[in-house]
Amino acid sequence: MAYKDLREFLALLEQENQLVRIEEELMPEPDLSAIGRAAPNLDNGPAVLVEKVTGYKNSVVLNVHGSWQNHALMLGLPKNTSIQDQFFTLDKLWSDYPVKPVWVKDAPCKEIKITEGINLFELLPLFRINKFDGGFYLSKALVVSKDLDEPDNVDKENVGIYRIQVQGKDRLSIQPLPFHDIAIHLRKAEELNQPLPIAICLGNDPVLSFMASTPIEYVQSEYAFAGALKGEPIELTKSEAAGLDIPARSEIILEGYIIPRERHIEGPFGEFPGSYSGARLQPEIKIHTITHRANPIFENLYLGMPWTEIDYLMAL
Q: Is pTM beyond 0.90 here?
């Protein structure tokens, strides 16, 4: 496929007039969420790259999956490919499963490493996705976790997108619903009163984000499905502390663990139907290691009253 990571896909989108660059400096709030709300409703639903955000060094990209044109390009098709033809292409590629990943040592996601003085508020250009959210959310991060009974079984390793709220400089909370694979991993860890190592991966190959939001069997690998869709193996590397298998070309990796049997108040949160869910107790995460690319791009997703990016991401 013509791209290997988020950066190369953004270059492809720009070549196809599916990327808008904003060079003017914008405020995190309300500007970024407003862009995320508006972009999917434009005729071509472009991705939007904000190069300067007040108070931060990093750029922000929104709406990467927020149109059928972008979806077609993700699948290696002409941007005006019909939804029906995209579906049939996806079905054909799906049958090529599994295309096993490969592991690399010199991974771009490890260009810079932070183990002391971690402060997510300084590193990430955080913003409330919706006005009455209870805090800052990471809404498009891949969360990687292992089955503690079979830690070397990559097929039982999970890669999923979950609702994550920033709770402090090195603390977050996560919503693992009982039917999620990560909930199985967490249940096993908490039965042993052990922390569950996780890696939170920000800014990813769009096919990985697509697969992480797609329900598959517990013993099926998101990485192997993504390889099938791309027609080539996904490049992985080992995380710094727990040896989790993470995308080698992610923009930012937050590595830590879910604290066993600890819960933190989380929410409210603006949901995809356009309503708010209330506050509730959710598992707490501690981050101890961060690696990232030089000048990392922070990717986030707006969700609210349809249609927004999440509706395209899950529609096929």
A: yes
